[in-house]
Amino acid sequence: MEHCICAIIGQPPMCFPWGFDEEDEGCNTLKLALAQKIMELRQQGVTHFAVVADYGIGLYAGECVNALRQTDPDLMRFVVTPHEEQAVKWAPYLRERYFQLLADCTIMEAASLHKTPDCEYDAYRKIIEYADIVFAIYDPAIAHGDAVDLAMEHASAQKLPVITILPDCWRC
Predict the structure, then answer these.
(1) Which domain holds residue 16?
(2) What is the tens place of the pLDDT at every residue in 123-141?
């Protein structure tokens, strides 16, 4: 794979048993699995990773890729925000991480200037359209028609290979 782009998507934190508690053992296990798969993909030739700047998988994956960029300057990370005001109501510590994610990316764009009903899906669709492969933290058993579910359908319609990590204990 030369100049291969991987879109990373995932269901929101409220689908996980630990919710927003990043100190929970389950969250740390998921982050470790995410990091391991990103490193494997890099070893297989993925040079560009694309994420949506959302709290949860997008933020975790973006931070992981940024850590890898410290020793791998050829690695690039694209970020698409659903809308410009996305982090306005986030807790201060999350806003700080969000803005750091944006500051450290290679390329950034917004799917929409303002929040719209489809802006989150539009952001996922953009990173999927850039991608050669999709890596998803996703359980189809809990699909309920949200932006991530629509993004997975879009990836399938694009006939992209999809690698899925399926945690075994979700509640959504």
Answers:
(1) 4-165
(2) 999 999 999 999 999 988 8
Q: Which amino acid is at 105?
A: C
How many alpha carbons fall within 13 Å on the CB side of residue 54? Answer: 24
Amino acid in position 3: H
Torsion angle, alpha carbons of 103, 134, 115, 56, to 10: -70
- Indicate whether this model's pTM tops 0.85: yes
Question: Does residue 172 sit within a domain?
Answer: no
CA 59 to chain centre: 7
The alpha-helical segments, DSSP class H, found in the chain are 25-43, 57-69, 92-103, 119-130, 147-157
- The greatest distance separating any two alpha carbons of the chain, rounded to the nearest whole angstrom, comes to 40
The radius of gyration computed from the CA coordinates of the chain, to the nearest angstrom, equals: 15
